[in-house]
Amino acid sequence: MSPLTLSGSPTLHSATSTAISGAPHLTDRLHNVGLEPDHNGLDIQRTQNEREPLLRHEHSEESSDAIDWSSRPRWRSPSPVWVLALVGLAAISTSAAIAPRLEVYTKTMCQVHGHGDARDTESCMSDPSVQASVAQLLTVISSTTGLISALTTGWWAALSDRYGRVRILSLNVAGVIISDIGFLIVAHSWSRIPGGYWMYAVAPLIEGFFGSEDSLDIDIGRFADALCYQGMSLASALAQAYISDCTPPGSRSRIFSMLLGLLFGGMGLGPVLSGFFIRATHNLFLVFYATASFDVLLAMVVWFVMPESLSAARMEESRRHHTEQTEERPAEKGLVHAVNDRLRRMFSFLEPLLVLLPKKSEIAENNISRRDWSLTILAGAYASATLVSGSLNQQFQYATYTFRWTAENLSYFLGVIFVARAMYLTLILPAILRYLSASPAPSQSSTEDLVDGQLAQDKAPFVDLLLSRVAMMVDVVSYLFLPLASTGVLFTALSVCAAIGTTFAPTTQSLALEIYARQGGTDTGKVLGAFSVLSAISSHIVGPAVFGLAYMKTVATFPGAIFYICCACLMTTLSLLLFVRLPKPLVQ
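Structure tokens predicted for Major facilitator superfamily (MFS) profile domain-containing protein (588 residues):
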């Protein structure tokens, strides 16, 4: 796994801000609800009482930063270029290792189940017991690492305010190096060390403690979510915070768009290079040595070259602010109070979910009070859909098991899927949105222009709801036919069709902002934070456990069952979307 690429805590303010920048059409939607996109934290409206230290900017601090930076050489000054370059390169390294790592796990289980030296990968992959064991290992790694990452990332991110982005990022990439080395050690000597193949899970757990996740536990949707929609890793959040520290607000949308493009490009290129490398060398481990060496080079850049984006004055201010907050807490005595306080802070990332509870609304005609469930139902639909993201490991397993794919074949498959989804998100989807949301041609009357503009704004939420429903319908059909695919080519084609489902995340979050604004809510960043929490729990913790267990139990009799479980989740999402109703806009 490489730094700056995987998903971090939903508690991070920068994670929600990129939900706006990652999907181009969300900026327009925010204008529709009277908001300006801001990559400076959860508070999109920039109200003073909501501003938190992670991305807090004061004019005096910005001025002192400018003074500090002007005295440095240009190459030692903080710049978005540092993050853009590291993310693009790290995406290549991370994605290149996905397919080879799955094959190493499979070969290990082949030996565990008595398939000799496991050189004949095709024969051992046809053993359901091998597949079940691999699924069990992946489930443990994915769920536990996701949970630990979710619990620790918020703490690390807050620490970066007080001691610097680069210093905390240095610890994060150290966890990456430990994971790389640990994987290679276990892969070569798992049969001679205590714990056997279960030691594969130790290095990812250490990595999770530093706010990252196992490199196999990603797909383009979840990988892009790390920097676009959800944001579930410390590295991705620190990268976004670094950019916000050293760029003015007006240019951040462009920078974040470039970040997304480099991420997509790297994710598409990595598996293809890995496939060519395996074909040329016929040695899986050379891929890991290459990616580990690449990770070390990137880590050296972070440790010794990358300049800090926060000035000493701003870090000192954050430390003073933290000390004041700590001293203001009531002094509770006793072990029970201490434990309760620790648990409350540990699970504080769940607090944003409160904003999704039904809101009371009044009908003006008869003053009848009722509850508006629209946002709650939409959140349930989102959680059900993102649950499917937790099945990617098992989908990869199914492809290798059914079509006897090697790491080389799977690498090419991943490259095609990554590129297809990237093209849909960056080219096709924006064009569809421009067409559906286009305003009528300008008229001669300024009054008519205002009316036309208002109509276009009113239409935008309905476009989002329509696209969300269409995305789910296409996904349902795709997952319904995926287990029926008789060839790898057909399986790949259906997987590409499922790329349309990528539309769901940005359009749903945009729709949630609109519903919340129409309910009278103002803290819109909390809504995006709540959706971050839902995605983290659903796709990184619950999803891998559910689909891993299902694949373990059904691989011997009906390995395609996981696709029908996915289909059931998506049909649940579609059913819930049919009950979503847009509240009437509040009268100003």
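The first helix runs from residue 13 to 22.
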